[in-house]
């Protein structure tokens, strides 16, 4: 569940001091994209209006223009993995956040995903993760996709985190994933298979629950 971990790290990163009222006004003049009304976002997410205001302030600190393109996203995300190369994983993650394929992440996209990852039901969290792994979005996770994801995670963690990795470790992990998830052995994992298999796995369930009550 690397995505979940990454998102959490992003969220708990210490923020720069947000400044006073005058700074806020200055910042607002730089904002190219204004988010939808807070009431609307409050209805769409599991966050209160106050929480959304705090999140928006943090989002603006990182991204004064109000939108994040893929390069910026990669730069921000890579800071959390100084020993590895997070660019490929950040690319997959960016696509998962950018659910409408607009090429940029707006505050609405960010906060909707965060709401699922932190406050969503188990099924919602698993569905979000499935979409992340289903790179070409055809409704199935195939072995190539899972191999790309696993390799991206290894690259991101870097050799200092996993000093004893063997070169065939990604393949073994992908095989183990399919062994567990591909219930009907047709070579692809569907959303139903994914949700069922994850719910059977105590470790995965525990890692999903870790992220509740964080904010
Ligand atoms: Ca696919
Ligand atoms: Ca299958």
From TrEMBL:
GO biological process: one example: regulation of potassium ion transmembrane transport
Xref: PROSITE patterns: EF_HAND_1, EF_HAND_2
Keyword Iron tagged: no
Main location: membrane
Record Gene3D superfamilies: EF-hand (1.10.238.10)
UniProt-annotated stretches for the region Disordered: 1-20
Localisation per UniProt entry: Cell membrane
Entries under CDD domains matching the protein: EFh
MF-aspect GO terms: calcium ion binding; potassium channel activity; potassium channel regulator activity; transmembrane transporter binding
Top-level taxon of origin: Eukaryota
Record domain EF-hand: where: 85-120, 121-156, 169-204
Keyword annotations of the record: Calcium, Cell membrane, Ion channel, Ion transport, Membrane, Metal-binding, Potassium, Potassium channel, Potassium transport, Repeat, Transport, Voltage-gated channel
Cellular component GO terms held in the UniProt record: voltage-gated potassium channel complex
Family matches, as PANTHER family: CALCIUM BINDING PROTEINS, KV CHANNEL-INTERACTING PROTEIN 1
UniProt record similarity statement: Belongs to the recoverin family.
Name listed for the protein in its UniProt record: Potassium voltage-gated channel interacting protein 1
